[in-house]
Amino acid sequence: MEKSKKAFKNPIRAALATLLIGMLMQVLQWPYSAGIVFISFTAILILYTIRFFRKTEKLTIDLIKMALVLFWTTNGILTILAFPYTVIFQVGTALTFIAWFTMEGTAYFMDKEGNSRNSLTEIIWNFVMVIGVITIISGGIMHLLSWDYSIPILTTGLTIVTSFILKDIFTAPKKQKDDVNNEELYS
Predict the structure, then answer these.
(1) Which residue pairs, CB below 8 angstroms and at least 24 apart, start in 54-57?
(2) What crossing angle do the helices spanning 33-54 and 9-27 adopt, rounded to 10°?
(3) SS3 77
(4) Does the CA dihedral 152-157-162-167 come out positive or negative?
(5) Cα four-point dihedral sign 107, 183, 123, 10
């Protein structure tokens, strides 16, 4: 495998799907949920770090994404361990996310000419992903307010987002070149 290809794409996605399942288990107060979330965050951190160091050319955006993953996963791990000062990592996550969105944001979904590189099917799947995220947010807020049907709504949203991630793992990839990040992409 060339070093310029996106390494560990499917294992990272599998760890993300497992993380979402673990978070759902925490909301439902099932046993072993904290362990699943902890292992998922740890796997994401390790896999993304290896992926980062395998890149031959590291741009500023790559450093920002690595910092974002580092802050986010460290916050998740330390929260599971009941570390009292996780606000430092939450602020770091927010600042690096803002930096990433400012530098790359919607350009991540465009080719170098500014055209959308998504097909109609991908646009529909992305719309489903947005619906899933909105459903998770709504279910989470409803759960905080102790409203009826919050758990089914939250479960539905997490199922949609997990399905989106798993769909990408199990579908046959098409090669294309990501000129922004100088990486081979599989879509």
Answers:
(1) 54/3, 54/7, 55/3, 55/4, 55/183, 56/3, 56/4, 57/4, 57/182
(2) 160
(3) helix
(4) positive
(5) negative
What integer pLDDT is reported at residue 123 of this predicted model?
76
Q: Nearest Cα to 9, choosing from 48, 36, 38?
A: 48
- What pTM was computed for the model? 0.68
What is the spatial distance between Cα 98 and Cα 89, in angstroms, rounded to a whole number? 14
Q: Tell me the pLDDT band of 101, cut-offs 50, 70 and 90.
A: confident
**Site of tokens 């989470």:** 140
What is the average pLDDT score of the chain?
A: 82
| Cα dist from 68 to 1, 141, 171, whole Å | 26, 25, 27
**CB-side neighbour CA atoms (13 Å) of 59:** 10
pLDDT class for 67, splitting at 50, 70, 90? very high
Contact assessment for residue 161 and residue 18, using Cβ atoms and an 8 Å cutoff: no
* Per-residue pLDDT tens digits for 22-44: 988 888 888 999 999 999 999 99
How far is residue 14's CA from residue 7's CA, in Å, rounded to a whole number? Answer: 13
